[in-house]
Amino acid sequence: MKRHATWKMASAGVLLLLLLTAGGCRKKEPSRGVEGDAINLSALNEIENYKEILRKDPNNLQALIGIGNLYFDTRQDQLAIEHYRRALALDPRNVNVRTDMAVCYRRKGDPDKAIEELKKVISIDPRHSQSRYNLGVILIYDKKDLEGGVQAWEALLENIPDYPYRESLKAEITKMRTMIDSMKPKPK
């Protein structure tokens, strides 16, 4: 019985990992990021351009976000976080920057800080679907809190009736609920 539950968890994990590939909030852009372990030259040039702008104007919000996004794309999470923090000091209600920063915290192995940031996003914008989705993923996979993750996804569907992936998320919630129920001790 335990193997069956483990198999269910593994198959649900594969599905969610596929959905997570777009973890951040930015629109899909051509890849500037990681090819193997090398950062491509275009991203390096863009980073240098942003650094020059920031040398002249350290509080340039668009440059802070732009360089943060490049660091995000190239998986330089600590540098992304540093620039996102500076951007948020200027624009604390920027939910997309805060959500991307949460992804960086998760990738660095700090799911608690990621959860904290995602909860801030939700308090600012209860209809921010990516933050609600990411919260569910982190609760389920990093914190092993199936119930909490399912509740985060149910809140997503409740607050965002036009969520474009509604049917697939409902199906995933149903699978997770079945898994949760199967893990409960059976009365004798």
Write the layout of secondary structure elements.
Blueprint: H1 2-20, E1 34-35, E2 38-39, H2 41-56, H3 61-73, H4 77-90, H5 95-107, H6 111-124, H7 129-142, H8 146-159, H9 166-183
Query: What portion of residues belong to β-strands?
Result: under 5%
CATH class descriptor of the domain at 111-183: Mainly Alpha
The gross shape turns out to be elongated
**In angstroms, what separates the terminal alpha carbons?**
16 Å
CATH architectural category of the domain at 111-183: Alpha Horseshoe
Helical run tally: 9
Q: In terms of structural class, how would the helical and strand content be classed? A: mainly alpha
How many whole angstroms does the radius of gyration measure?
Answer: 19 Å
Write structural notes for this entry.
- This protein has 188 residues and is an all-alpha fold.
- Among the domains are: 37-92, Tetratricopeptide repeat domain (Serine Threonine Protein Phosphatase 5, Tetratricopeptide repeat, Alpha Horseshoe), CATH 1.25.40; 111-183, Alpha Horseshoe (Serine Threonine Protein Phosphatase 5, Tetratricopeptide repeat).
- The protein is built from nine helices and two strands; from the N terminus they run H-E-E-H-H-H-H-H-H-H-H.
- It has helices at 2-20, 41-56, 61-73, 77-90, 95-107, 111-124, 129-142, 146-159, 166-183; strands at residues 34-35, 38-39.
- Strands 1-2 form a two-stranded antiparallel ribbon.
- Helix 5 (95-107) runs antiparallel to helix 6 and helix 8 (146-159) packs antiparallel against helix 9.
- The longest helix is centred in the N-terminal third of the chain and has 19 residues, at 2-20.
- The protein is elongated.
- It starts with a helix and ends in a 5-residue tail after the last helix.
- The model is unreliable at 1-22 and 27-37 (pLDDT under 50).
